[in-house]
Design a protein that fits this description.
Blueprint lengths: L13 E9 L2 E9 L8 E7 L2 E6 L4 H12 L2 E2 L2 E7 L5 E6 L3 E2 L3 H9 L2 E3 L7 E6 L4 E5 L7
Parallel strand pairs: 6-9
Antiparallel strand pairs: 1-2, 2-3, 3-4, 5-8, 6-7, 7-11, 10-11
The structure holds iron/sulfur cluster.
């Protein structure tokens, strides 16, 4: 039985994106709310196409790292529920063991929707191995005994 530490899952707000053309290049300003801690700093990223020109508004390096990753390689931990067969409850809560690309979230949700696992289920049990070819497991975040 594998134990996976529960991660803090936050929400990102892409509050504003403005487009402008400077010297024939596409420049954008992306405004983010950092999810690194409850301060929720408002971070602004100046972009030139796919290149980052500058980042402002963060209070610590965690915010800088978050903003740079969010505009170049956004990822999320996916949480959902999976049907339990013969369980005390019909569903159990699950999550990906690590964050996955945002573009794979729809595939992840579709795979979990069709999944059913037998009771009992313990926190940390792997309910779906190597999900979506990303080397990422889906694990239970809730216990569910036999019904
Ligand atoms: S930049 Fe740092 S202080 Fe601000 S919300 Fe992010 S983690 Fe918290």
């Amino acid at each position: 039985m594998k134990k996976v530490k529960q991660a803090i899952i936050g929400k990102t707000e892409l509050a504003e994106t403005k487009g402008d053309t400077t010297n024939g290049k596409r420049c954008n300003t992306v405004s983010l709310t950092c999810i690194g801690c409850p301060m929720g700093c408002q971070v602004t990223v100046e972009m030139d196409g796919g290149d980052i020109l500058g980042v402002t508004g963060y209070t610590c390096k965690r915010g800088l790292d978050y903003a740079q990753k969010e505009v170049t390689d956004p990822t999320r931990i996916v949480t959902s529920t999976v049907r339990v067969l013969g369980g005390a409850h019909p569903f159990v809560a699950v999550k990906t063991a690590r964050d996955i690309p945002k573009g794979k979230i729809r595939d992840a949700m579709a795979a979990l929707r069709g999944l059913a696992i037998p009771a009992p289920v313990s926190i940390g049990d792997v309910v779906l191995p190597d999900t979506f070819g990303l080397g990422c497991e889906v694990v239970a975040t809730q216990n569910c005994g036999a019904g």
